[in-house]
Amino acid sequence: MKINRFEDIISWQKSKELTIAIYNTFKETRDFGFKNQIERASVSIMNNITEGFERKSNKEFTYFLFVAKGSCGEVRSMLYLAKELNKITDEQFKIFYNLSLEISKLLSGLIKSIK
Fold it and tell me: Is the pTM of this model over 0.90?
């Protein structure tokens, strides 16, 4: 299946969902360093998928998908901190963690399909 727009990429759709959830969850957080880091990491996932796709080169797309996958790992790492520091509930952690894991798996599948 040929993808014509980055908006059609499922991992982009899911990463947008994660980013919105992260922004909404941490909007009242006064720990601005933490908030900035997790928001930037989540935005990085969707934007790297987009940037790689728009470059119209499989080699560059693959590179940016790996960068997005790294940002996805960073979000998961930050989620552990958020849970330990009581910034999110165990239930929120589980939802965000599972979504970020799903995105990571989708990215891996997309990388394999390009190679």
Answer: yes
- What letter represents residue 21's amino acid? A
What confidence score (pLDDT) does residue 1 get? 62
Could you give the domains of the chain? Answer: 7-23+30-114 (1.20.1440.60)
Low-confidence residues of the chain: pLDDT under 50: none
CB-based burial, 57-79: b 16+ in 10 Å, e otherwise: eeeebbbbbebbbebbebbbebb
Least Cα distance to 104 among 79, 62, 68, 78 occurs for 68
d(Cα 82, Cα 111) in Å, to the nearest integer? 29
The separation between CA 4 and the C-alpha centre of its own chain, rounded to angstroms, equals 21
Q: DSSP assignment of 76-113, as one string? A: HHHHHHHHHTTSS-HHHHHHHHHHHHHHHHHHHHHHHH
Q: Rounded to an integer, what is the distance from CA 12 to the centroid of its chain?
A: 8
